């Protein structure tokens, strides 16, 4: 466990290479607040009506989302306050864990973060494929092309984008495009769902399935609830904030979890209100309206998913670039070949898994159970307990221990439920089924 004497701490990065350059702390709290708010309002937000509200219902869904918002804010504040421990800054989650617990924790957190990024990337490719299929069906109803075809097309597009965009600084122009796409699909989904809901007859809001399936679906939905606020990268984000770092990061977090969550909550509730238990895991599959407007929404979701996937894949790309000594001009033949082979190979594997098991809601649950619960809820409470143990009262220590145990149990239950649902669906899934 941790030791409060900085002189007795070893620098974990001396044993494990640092693969991310130290970033300059010059971003305002408002910039960071906007950035992290965009993260929680990504195209995934189009799925929460179906993956959270349908299995939980009105009371469970609303209470779950609100509680998750509050608990995520609390856990994020704990992590942000640990930016400086033992007289040094910790700009990576794994560095902080390594400082408090040692080498093993460094490696475990490193693995959890990259596993989380990998699973999130799988979800983005499924989302992009779903959006592309929905766009295709606006103009053709022959159903010759199935969802796996569109996932493959989305994966190929991701490969081209990864090759053409060598590093994050080259992504700046695309961030504006991503922001525009986000506003388009959220606004269109909200307005068209509102119109449909006002015109539609009474909807069925009962939770579908047998008693046993309801239990698994409910537990799996809990994983989706926490996935919506995946904040396991707080130290990395905080590294870019200008001084005073902790105070400005707290401002950004309060912005994210107040103003920033409004679009997510709004589109989630309005979608479920409009379509009830028949709400899809991709809300735009339910809406009615002008073909051109729905086409804009689908393509916006597709483009935004491709861009956001690249952001989440960038740490992996950077790790691979550093490991294999990729330097110099991005247009150098060796560097282009490396991106084609290595990044292409990574995305081919990601696309293959996305095509093999295109169950978006269940992958969200699985990601929540495997990485979001530990990184966002369990570790912040325990790290704060270790780092501040001499300054906490017995009641405060008991509170943090209770949180650790509670969220660990829910994480295990969500993992089992998500795995069960995936196995059940896999048993009846045909690769090119009509999905």
Automatic annotation (TrEMBL):
Localization in the cell: Membrane
GO biological process, one term: amino acid transmembrane transport
Record keywords, A-Z: Amino-acid transport, Membrane, Transmembrane, Transmembrane helix, Transport
Domain of life: Eukaryota
Main subcellular location: membrane
One GO molecular-function entry: amino acid transmembrane transporter activity
Entries under InterPro entries matching the protein: AA_transpt_TM
Pfam families, per database record: Aa_trans
GO cellular component terms, A-Z: membrane
PANTHER family, per database record: OS05G0424000 PROTEIN-RELATED
Protein name in the entry: Proline transporter 1-like isoform X1
């Amino acid at each position: 466990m941790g030791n409060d004497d900085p002189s007795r701490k070893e620098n974990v990065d001396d044993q494990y290479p640092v693969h991310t350059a130290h970033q300059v702390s010059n971003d305002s709290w408002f910039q960071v607040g906007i950035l992290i708010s965009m993260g929680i309002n990504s195209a995934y937000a189009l799925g929460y009506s179906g993956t959270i509200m349908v299995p939980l219902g009105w009371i469970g869904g609303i209470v779950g989302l609100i509680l998750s918002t509050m608990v995520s804010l609390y856990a994020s504040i704990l992590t942000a306050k640990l930016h400086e421990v033992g007289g040094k800054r910790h700009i990576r989650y794994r560095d902080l864990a390594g400082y408090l617990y040692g080498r093993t924790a460094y490696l475990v957190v490193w693995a959890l973060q990259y596993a989380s990024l990998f699973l999130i990337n799988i979800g983005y490719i499924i989302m992009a494929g779903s959006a592309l299929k929905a766009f295709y069906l606006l103009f053709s109803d022959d159903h010759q092309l199935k969802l796996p075809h569109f996932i493959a097309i989305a994966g190929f597009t991701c490969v081209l984008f990864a090759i053409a965009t060598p590093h994050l600084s080259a992504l700046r122009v695309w961030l504006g495009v991503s922001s525009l796409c986000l506003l388009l699909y959220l606004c269109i989904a909200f307005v068209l769902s509102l119109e449909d809901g006002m015109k539609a007859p009474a909807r069925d809001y009962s939770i579908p399935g047998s008693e046993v399936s309801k239990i698994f679906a409910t537990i799996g939905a809990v994983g989706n609830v926490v996935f919506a606020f995946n904040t396991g990268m707080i130290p990395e984000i905080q590294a870019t904030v200008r001084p005073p770092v902790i105070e400005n990061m707290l401002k950004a977090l309060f912005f994210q979890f107040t103003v920033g969550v409004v679009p997510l909550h709004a589109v989630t509730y309005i979608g479920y209100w409009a379509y009830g238990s028949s709400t899809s895991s991709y809300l735009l599959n339910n809406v009615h309206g002008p073909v051109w407007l729905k086409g804009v929404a689908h393509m916006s979701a597709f483009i935004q998913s491709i861009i956001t996937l690249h952001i989440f894949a960038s740490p992996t790309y950077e790790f691979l670039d550093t490991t294999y000594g990729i330097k110099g001009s991005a247009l150098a033949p060796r560097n282009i070949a490396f991106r084609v082979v290595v990044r292409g190979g990574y995305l081919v594997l990601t696309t293959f898994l996305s095509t093999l098991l295109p169950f978006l809601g269940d992958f969200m649950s699985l990601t929540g159970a495997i990485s979001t619960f530990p990184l966002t809820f369990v570790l912040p409470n325990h790290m704060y307990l270790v780092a501040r143990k001499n300054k906490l009262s017995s009641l405060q220590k008991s509170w943090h221990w209770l949180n650790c145990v509670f969220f660990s149990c829910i994480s295990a239950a969500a993992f089992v439920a998500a795995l069960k649902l995936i196995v059940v669906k896999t048993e009846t899934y045909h690769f090119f089924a009509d999905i």
